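Researcher: Re-running this chain for the archive, since the previous output was lost when a drive failed. Same request as before.
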Amino acid sequence: TSVHWHGLHVDAANDGHPVDAIQPGDECPYSFSIANRAGTFWYHS
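Model: Regenerated structure tokens:
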């Protein structure tokens, strides 16, 4: 599993690239700052 963001400008480490897939039972905390909070954003895995 990976999480990919739309509408947010996040660094590559938090963008859900499939190379960094989360394996069953593993965890992956996401941490990034949002400079402009107004907008329409969504994510999918």
